Amino acid sequence: MDFETISMGEYAERSYLDYSMYVVLDRALPFVGDGLKPVQRRIIYAMSELGLSAQSKHKKSARTIGDVIGKFHPHGDSACYEAMVLMAQNFSYRYPLVDGQGNFGSPDDPKSFAAMRYTESRLTAYAKTLLAEIPHGTVDWGPNFDGTLSEPLWLPARLPNLLLNGTSGIAVGMATDVPPHNLTEVANGVLHLLDNPQAEIEELCEHIQGPDYPTKAEIITPREDIINFYKTGHGSVRMRAVYEREGNDIVVTALPHQCSGSKVLEQIAAQMRNKKLPMVSDLRDESDHENPVRLVITARSNRVDFDGIMSHLFVTTDLEKTYKVNMNVIGLDRRPQVKDLRMILTEWLTFRTETVRRRLQHRLDKVDARLHILEGLLVAYLNLDEVIRIIREEEHPKEQLMATFKLTEIQADAILDTRLRNLARLEEMKIRTEQSELETEKAGLEGTLKSRAKMKSLIKKEIIEDRDTYGDVRNTAIMTREAAAVFDETTLVPSEPSTIILSKAAWIRAAKGHDIDAASLSYKPGDEYQDHAHGRSNLISVFLSADGRAFSLATHTMPSARGQGEPLTTKFSFKNNMLPTSVTCLKPSEKVLMSSNAGYGYFGLVENLHSKMKAGKKVLSVPAGFVAMKPKHIASEIDAHVVCVTSAGYMLVFPLDELPELAKGKGNKLINIPAKRLKAGEEWLADVLVITSEQSFLVHAGARYIRFKWKDLVNYLGTRAKRGSLLPQGFRNVDRLEIEVAED
Most C-beta atoms within 10 A of its C-beta, which of 194, 301, 628, 669? Predict the structure, then answer.
């Protein structure tokens, strides 16, 4: 018994390489000649053998698939049927090859097609461009999987189907993604290349503008990028949905290729649930037979930025998609290679020229064979009596005819096969007429085969005929658009007065309006009011913890004050259980005074307090044993003064510009508190605020308060870090101090 001994590693390597080549050449990648993978080629050929032309009646898809897997493609019937369905979907193929009857899926769900026992199919008229020349000796044939039948190794495509319908596939170690194109444009590009074999890709791109998908969405890829991937064979195409405005509605009328309308609506609805699209009030899918795509997005008012909302949705949903371009195909040398546009068209023209040459040669051979037979028949008619005698009297009439009239075996067989009814004088005239016509045809065929110019002219004529028959206008417009951008959430949120409430257990909520008594709201058992801030729904709220860390949260995302809110601990992580003690809601461009009760502080922009980190952002350095105070709004820096009050009743007023403007830090000393008293906890900074000379403020001490106007501050004015002056008797116990800014 003969056998070979090899190592396991060598065996595995050889087997894997064999499998890889099989997948690459016989399953995943298309052939540049007909643009088809083997399974697609076999389906098309099997349907033609069943007589399922565009003029025939539809036949059950199960019959077709049975023939395909039984005769040519011994793989799974479901995978084979799915490949056939794909070729029937006019939203998947730019020029479908199969005409389906029944449920062949929908753009919303391409795989929702019915089982093959329910659907019927036949070939489309366009498929004729792949099949018409098969009987004319234009293809090589090979045995099927069991050697009982022959199948074409490729189809004689009359047009570059590879570019027209595109393809995608994953092989072993390589993949392919060829976008579909417009038939008229590609045909014009081929004609230009025929006339100008040295044409550069830029010249071809004057005819082939770019991919043309089976959808009316827009390609927004810049032209230089399109030309670049035609040059390299690699790149990407970006498609964007088409929309129009109808009152308060945004109506999407075209989606990118293979984009699901229901999925887009789900993506938008998810943003609405997460309060990221508060300006959108409703979504509807009004698609029907007359309007295959009609998605309606209703805005809350006609004052919103409709184009801005769509720009946001282009980034965050499938309303804008990017498609890979990887023109990796099997060339005429039967090797996979990433080819540029010119290489693909050049190789296809070589393929087409050889196909036409073989077709003409096949016809020429038939003409020669027929002329040969007609020559013998003419001899017989000219010597009819002798021919009849030989047939009647000779024991071997065939050999006698060949010897007597110097005929070939083929001519002798033709004479013997002639019926008696054809032995009329009229037949001789028919033979001479046919002979004359065939001689003329032969001369034309030989002239075309020997002349490059005539061959080129014939190829051009046929391409033009097919272009005029099957060509159409572009589906996909190529437009120049600005890049889409995600909107800042605050720009999408209506600006409404809001009161943000913080509890001691760090539960938060937001109420509409500024007339809310936050302290009187209900709180969870064991919890109570901590702080509140008046702001707007489109602003960011900042929560400041005792250790000087800031935590940011969009105000419009907070739960309503009708309930008890939700804990910040689910959104942020607080070190050492340092929960927020204050809340601020101001514009990012405004400024605040940052301070600690140790008597230090600085001022800076509100935007410096914003943070996307779960652990917050350290904005104020607080000495050990002390806490950060609530940031105080600086309404105006012009004539602004800082008011500081200690727990012992000392008040100091000094100009704001004596403090540094920082993004973060400890700051400078605000008011002089004796170190011993500060360290012993006997005195600390009770509160601060920033005023102008036109404002007044209140100093609360228990149930009593005192109002200060600018003219009343003469004894308290000084410079930063001074001791200041004592408040009037009865207002020095400031352990429950609350300072408010009041208008005159």
Answer: 628
Choosing from 118, 213, 470, 523, which is the catalytic residue? 118
3-class secondary-structure state, position 111 = coil
Q: Domain residues for 129?
A: 36-156
- Is 705 annotated in the active site? no
- Domain boundary at 309, 324, 339, which? 324
Pair 361, 137: CB distance under 8 Å: yes
637 contacts 591 by C-beta, under 8 angstroms: yes
Q: How far, in Å, CA of 497 to CA of 368, rounded?
A: 95
Sort strands 120-123 and 150-152 into parallel, antiparallel or unpaired: unpaired
Taking only the tens place, the pLDDT of each residue in 70-118 is 999 999 999 999 999 999 999 999 999 999 999 999 998 999 999 999 9
DSSP-assigned letter for residue 135: G
N residues, the chain? 744
Residues 357 and 302 reside in one and the same domain: no
pLDDT digits (tens, 9 = 90+) for 159-191: 999 999 999 988 888 889 999 999 999 999 999
d(CA 613, CA 621): 18
What's the sign of the alpha-carbon dihedral 28, 31, 35, 38?
A: negative
Identify whether 59 is part of a domain. Answer: yes
What is the separation of C-alpha 158 from the centre of its chain, rounded to a whole number of angstroms?
Answer: 32
Distance linking the first and last C-alpha atoms of the chain: 114
The reply to whether 107 and 136 lie within a common domain is yes
**pTM of the prediction?**
0.75
